[in-house]
Amino acid sequence: MTRSAAPALRYYAQPGALTDLGAHAASLRDLPHDLAGLCRVVQGLLVHPFLGHLYGLDSKEMRHDELETRAAVRMVDRILALDSSPLAQARAPERRLVGNCRHFTVLLCALLRARGVASRARCGFAAWFDRSNFTDHWVCEVWDEARGSWVLVDAQLDREQRKAFGIAFDPLDVPRTEFLVGGDAWQRCRSEGADPNAFGIMDLRGLWFVRGDVVRDLAALAKRELLPWDGWGLMVDRHESDARELALLDRVAALTLAGDEQHAERLAIQASDPGLRVPREVINFNLGGAKVELPPGVANEARALEELFAAVAAWAEVEPTIAAVALVGSHARGEARPDSAVDLVVLCDDVDAFAAEPRWIQRFGAPSRHALERWGAVSSIRVWYATGLEVEFGFTAPSWAAAPLDAGTRRVVTDGLRVVFDRNGILNGLSLSRA
Question: Rounded to two decimals, what is the model's pTM?
Fold first, then answer.
C-alpha cells in the first residue's frame, strides 16, 4: 500500500449510510472471518428473482417488493423477519430476501466494512451471463493486503449459478476481462470502437445506459450504492450527451479507473457536479418514474452537512473565544431547498476578529469566493465553496443567547435552531436538538 492510497483504504473500511448495519453489527461475531465464508453467508440469505428457478422457486410468486430495499440494515431487518435464525445459518430459498446483484454486493460490503475491511461496490457489466453481450451487473471490490491491490468479488455466484453459466473463474477473484466497471465500458465505446448496444440488460441498451452505469459507479465509490433503477442527474432520460457532457463523462470514467491517489478528486467531482451528485429524491424507474426520498445521509447535500457540522464543531473546540455554534434557518427546520444557504450563528467574544482574518474558512473546503456582510450586531461571512455548498457564518456576542431573549433572537430560535457546538451550555433551553 502506498502512502497516497491510505486515505482511500481508511475511507472504504468504514460503513456508509447504506452499508451501516447499526445494531446488527454486534451479531457479526458468529459469522466467518474469511471472504469465502462471508460470501456463503450472503448466498444463504438472498435469492435473485431472475434465478429463482435454480432453487426451485417460481419467479412470479417471489416477493419482488423486497427489491426496493436500499440500506443493508433494512435488508437484515427483513431477513430476520422472514427467519429469525442466526445470520450464519442458510435459509431455505423461499425464506431468503429477494435481491439482485446490487443487494448481494451491498450486503457483502456491509459485512466487510463492519469488520474494518476496505471494500466498495462497483457497477458495470458482466460477460458471463450472455457471451455475445455485456450485462448490467454489480460486484464487490475488496482490498487484498497481501497483493496490495483491489480484487473483484462476486458474492452472488454460488455453485448453482457457476454451473448454470459455465463459469470457470474464481468468484473471489473475478478477472477484469469478465467484469468491466462502468468507466471501462464507457472508454471502450468512446475510444475503442465497442458497440454501445452490446452493453445493457434485456432491451435497455446503448451509450445512454453505459452513461448511467458510469454515474452509478462513481456514486458507489462515494459510498452511495443506490438501486440499479434509481435515476438522477444525467440519468433522468435517454438524451444524447453533448460535447460538454461527453468531456465530463470521459473525465469521470478515467477517475473511476485511476488509482487511489485520485480518491479525493473522485469524491470532489461526484459531490460538486449537478449531473453527478445524489439529490434527496431520486426517480425510481422500477416504480414507473415515481419520486422516492432517500434514507438519511445518502444525498450529497446531507453528507456534506454532516461533515460540515463535524468540522465546525472541531474548529470551535480549539478556538477559545468561541462559546457556541448553532444552525438556524431552513436547514434547521428541515425545509431547505437545494440552493438554500447553510446559516450558522457563531457566539464568540471577539466578533470582528474572524471577519478581519478569514483564512479559517479554508478549514471547511475550497472556497470559490466569500463576502463580508453586517447585520446590526452580527458580522457575517458568506462563503461559496467549490462543492456548491453556500455557508453563512454569522458572528455575534454570547449575549445573543442570554435571557430574556430579544425579539430578533426569539424569532430566529422559534423559526428553528439546532446546536452544533456549545462549550458551556449557553444554548441549553433554546433547542433540544443537536446537529
Answer: 0.75
Within 10 angstroms of residue 252's Cβ, the number of other Cβ atoms is 26
Look at residue 4 in the predicted model and tell me its pLDDT.
Answer: 66
What separation in angstroms does the CA of 238 have from each of 183, 209, 312? 18, 8, 41
- Per-residue pLDDT tens for 238-258? 999 999 999 999 999 999 999
**Per-residue confidence (pLDDT) for residue 273, from 0 to 100:** 87
Burial of 349 (0-12, 13-18, 19+ CB in 10 A): exposed
Angle formed at CA 14 by CA 85 and CA 282, multiple of 5 degrees: 85
Counting every residue written for the chain, the total comes to: 435
> Alpha-carbon distance 84 to 369, whole Å?
55
Separation CA 242–CA 246 (nearest Å): 6
> Before 404, cis peptide (omega within 30)?
yes
Residue 367's CB is within 10 A of a number of other CB atoms, namely 16
Ramachandran class of 431: left when φ > 0, alpha when ψ lies in -120 to 50, beta otherwise: beta
Of the CA atoms within 13 Å of residue 245, those in its CB half-sphere come to 16
Q: Is 242 exposed, middle or buried (CB count within 10 Å of its CB: 0-12, 13-18, 19+)?
A: exposed
Instruction: Give φ, ψ of 289 to 5 degrees.
Output: 85, 15
pLDDT at 412: 83
351-385 pLDDT tens trace: 888 988 899 999 998 898 999 988 777 889 999 98
Sheet strands (E) in 258-404: 281-284, 290-293, 322-328, 342-348, 367-375, 378-385, 390-396
Q: Which residue reads 438554500 in cell numbers?
A: 340
Using CA atoms, how far residue 53 sits from 1, 64, 155, 165, 377, in Å, is: 43, 15, 19, 14, 71
Low-confidence ranges of the chain (pLDDT < 50): 431-435
| Phi, psi torsion values for 317, nearest 5 degrees | -60, -35
User: Which one-letter amino acid corresponds to residue 196?
Assistant: P
Taking residue 36's Cβ as centre, other Cβ atoms within 10 Å add up to 12
Helix (H) or strand (E) holding 152: strand 149-153
Q: Is beta strand 290-293 parallel, antiparallel or unpaired with respect to 281-284? A: antiparallel
In the block, residue with C-alpha cell 451528485: 277
> Phi/psi of residue 315, each to 5°?
-65, -45
